[in-house]
Amino acid sequence: LNIALLPGDGIGPEIVGEAVKVLDAVGKKYGHTFNYKKGLVGACAIDATGDPYPAETHKICRESDAVLFGAIGDPKYDNDPSAKVRPEQGLLRMRKSLGLFANVRPLVVFDSLVERSPLKAERVKGADFVCIRELTGGMYFGRPQGRSEDGNTAYDTCVYSREEVERILKVAFEQARKRRKLLTVVDKANVIATSRLWRQIAKEMAPQYPDVQVDYMFVDNAAMQIIQRPTYFDVLVTENLFGDILTDESSVISGSLGLLPSASLGSDVALFEPIHGSYPQAAGKNIANPMATILSAAMLLEHVGLQQEGAAVRAAVEKAIAQGVVTEDLVDASMPGQTARSTTEVG
Amino acid sequence: LNIALLPGDGIGPEIVGEAVKVLDAVGKKYGHTFNYKKGLVGACAIDATGDPYPAETHKICRESDAVLFGAIGDPKYDNDPSAKVRPEQGLLRMRKSLGLFANVRPLVVFDSLVERSPLKAERVKGADFVCIRELTGGMYFGRPQGRSEDGNTAYDTCVYSREEVERILKVAFEQARKRRKLLTVVDKANVIATSRLWRQIAKEMAPQYPDVQVDYMFVDNAAMQIIQRPTYFDVLVTENLFGDILTDESSVISGSLGLLPSASLGSDVALFEPIHGSYPQAAGKNIANPMATILSAAMLLEHVGLQQEGAAVRAAVEKAIAQGVVTEDLVDASMPGQTARSTTEVG
Ligand SMILES: CC(C)[C@H](C(=O)O)[C@@H](O)C(=O)O
Ligand SMILES: CC(C)[C@H](C(=O)O)[C@@H](O)C(=O)O
């Protein structure tokens, strides 16, 4: 299996390094060979090449079966969002050029960590849903985007075509079919035209999935229900910008951002990454939690058909949590008297 | 004082009726005369006139000093968001034609109700912030909006002009100045052009308010922080669609939707309304909580300079809560053995 490694910025290199240790252990135990190729992306790529997603990195990704990605972002760019070259541009270009149109984020609340959730335990316990975010359309890529000549008016365009909507809804219907069979389509069809297209197409497709119950929810209501009734959801699907907001909102209710993996799927190559960011304050300190990246590697294994191997990785992570072999972010919630382990120890 | 009453749909007429009782009591006690004029808006206006915001209603609003609004929305329109005439259109037209560009929503967590919040008590206790949402621009009103000729592509436009951004930021800076002096400007400046204009203008204006600390936050991060650290915020300002999502998210963390008022401010006339919706299931049953509407009336009084009168209304609401004179939605949280009171009793 050819795996592209894109560690990126901040804690990226450390956490991806630990996931590679885990993959190597899997290879040894189950008799697989993983070939890694490293590529630059984000701020480190700008520093080295001037380009946040160099052609060389794109080539490495295209020639791989899957990509394991760390995180991008550096504080030196955060306070200057209008800088000509920014790490985010690399991320967006990577998603678009690899055709990664479906971002899949499972949200599980670990029983043992329920006290870490900002929500009351009885509300959040048992929550287990998947957010599916469209990742290569909408306002992120719609044109025209820019300023009037005098600079005093700005505009963005949100565009969706039938083809874009159908392919992401197909992913969502199929996920729902494999799970509890409830699909929540989130939009703002009472106000915007692109949402009305989404809702129309979802209604057209629904009869092909008679076993799936489809539920339509306005995005403002969804933002409330995720907090009010997180256990209600099974599969939630939405467009790019709403997905950006709702997936992040969903992720914090678990109380353990450091445990959440994600997959971005498209035509051929798939990409796996932890949902937390580059956490620059922790970079180089050997304190970041590598579990979300390790669980992303588990998703990668499952994606290429190595179910047993993926399950073994998940089991190892759960065992480590149960035994209190965790980084500082998870210490309080587990056994008393335990101390924070380093990134490498947890890995 | 000339007050336009727009009860709207669902529980609207009941809750506005109770607020009028309160206003009349204020008038009697403090020697004011309030002249009311009623107008139709929403589903009831469509039923009566075919138009969700009839010209007659607009005239009544224009000739008033302030508008007290209930809610709009009827289930018969909810499942058909592409119906030609919809209650929401009336709402949007009303906002636009009255120039109500600033939606102001104070979010207070009552200590005695902290157990009703979906958030853990220690997280949410003491949260006290104001969301300011731009209400007449962005994707809600941007054109072009629609479909390609073959119907297979849909598009929306988000537009903001300097003038629109400046006037709403001015409201926000001034609010912050009256409060804890922390203004959080929420945008997605790392991806969209309208957000970059917002951020640029906020940075230009900040030196005029040296006493206000300005904080820039991406909308996805804000969706997380509202849950993680609700006590952090003082004044939060954002564009129309982000505001739709974030104000609703914020409102549920209080655990008492039935207590949250709002104001929509513009050039001359101002509008006041509870943030909960038309709650059609409760319509006509005399069970809906009128307190959010009564507190909206308090905001109305304060807006026209009747500070003492507004404070008296607030004090009365707090006393009613403390004494357990509450509708069923608030019963559990207050004293044991108490029973739910009706809308009219609470009024
Ligand atoms: C960094 C930013 C461009 C990106 C996005 O908005 O998609 C991030 O928030 C994410 O969700 O991966
Ligand atoms: C009903 C709808 C058009 C409206 C909006 O999106 O503005 C509502 O959600 C609100 O927040 O008042």
TrEMBL record, chains A, B:
Pathway: Amino-acid biosynthesis; L-leucine biosynthesis; L-leucine from 3-methyl-2-oxobutanoate: step 3/4. One of its GO terms (biological process) is L-leucine biosynthetic process. One of its GO terms (cellular component) is cytosol. It is an enzyme of class 1 (oxidoreductase). It comes from the Bacteria. It is found in: Cytoplasm. Its cofactor is Mn(2+); Mg(2+). Its EC number is 1.1.1.85. Its main location: cytoplasm. This is 3-isopropylmalate dehydrogenase. Mg(2+) binds at D220, D244, D248. It catalyses: (2R,3S)-3-isopropylmalate + NAD(+) = 4-methyl-2-oxopentanoate + CO2 + NADH. The gene is leuB. Residues 2-347 form the Isopropylmalate dehydrogenase-like domain. InterPro entries: IsoCit/isopropylmalate_DH_CS, IsoPropMal-DH-like_dom, Isopropylmalate_DH. Belongs to the isocitrate and isopropylmalate dehydrogenases family. LeuB type 1 subfamily. SUPFAM superfamilies: Isocitrate/Isopropylmalate dehydrogenase-like. Keywords: Amino-acid biosynthesis, Branched-chain amino acid biosynthesis, Cytoplasm, Leucine biosynthesis, Magnesium, Manganese, Metal-binding, NAD, Oxidoreductase.
